[in-house]
Structures are given as C-alpha cells and as structure tokens.
Specification:
two-stranded antiparallel sheet; Spore Coat Polysaccharide Biosynthesis Protein SpsA, Chain A; 20% strand; single chain; four-stranded parallel sheet
C-alpha cells in the first residue's frame, strides 16, 4: 500500500466537518493520515476536530489565507508522495482512495487524479464540478 495524506481545508464548518471526517474514517484504504488546515475559523470547528478526531493533525492558521494557501500549507506538512485534497463539506465514498489508487497504478506518469464528484442535490449528473462539467478526464 502506498501511503496517502488527506488534506482538508476548514473554515467555520462546525456544521459539516464531523460528517466529512467520519466519511474519511470509513475509507476502506487504511494507509492514510489526515491533516486539517483551519483557515482562522471564528466558530468552534477547530475545537470539534480536536475533541472528536484526536488522531487528526490540526494546523491552525493565524489568519484566513484563502483555500489555495491553506491547501499549500497542508501539502507542505504532508510526509507522503500522494495527497488527496478535500473541502470541509465533502463526503467521500468508502472506496474513494482504493479506486483513485487503481487509476494511479494504471497511469503511473499522471501528476493528478480526480475523483468523480456527486452533487447531492443533483445525483443523476455525477460530472458536475462547481457548476461545470469535468471534460478533461
């Protein structure tokens, strides 16, 4: 198994972060660690993470640096060659990492692999991403 770091960017997500981390903990691929980068939240989401997910590494940024900078902070702190980037309101399927790594094995020269994204409000159209179609995969 090849280890993976899962980097989750959090900002004021007390409403969603428990579900996100619970879904990550249900992954059937077990060789992973989790880093949550908190973008200077003003709610209690960092405390929720520390209380309910003590094995998750929490990085608290001193200011909100935006999603890209927070992701970069998580990637910088990762200790694996493979990184899965998630937002704080995502639910991952238990097979997500297993399937992504199968694709990576088939395409060893690939630099990035993207999972299918399902919009819970529009499940019949699984290719939606931020309102557009994924056309490059």
């Amino acid at each position: 198994m090849e280890p993976v770091t899962i980097v989750i960017v959090n900002y004021n997500s007390a409403k969603h972060i428990i579900g996100t981390l619970q879904s990550v903990n249900r992954l059937n691929y077990r060789d992973f660690n989790v880093i949550v980068v908190d973008n200077n939240s003003t709610d209690n989401s960092p405390d929720i993470i520390e209380k309910h997910f003590p094995h998750t590494r929490l990085i608290r940024l001193k200011e909100n640096m935006g999603s890209a900078a927070a992701r970069n902070a998580g990637i910088t702190e990762s200790n694996t060659d493979l990184v899965l980037l998630l937002d704080d309101d995502i639910t991952v399927h238990p097979d997500c990492l297993t399937e992504l790594l199968k694709v990576k094995k088939k395409l060893p020269l690939s630099a990035a692999i993207h999972p299918m994204i399902m919009d819970k409000d529009n499940p019949e159209n699984p290719q939606l991403y931020n309102g557009g179609y994924i056309h490059y995969l």
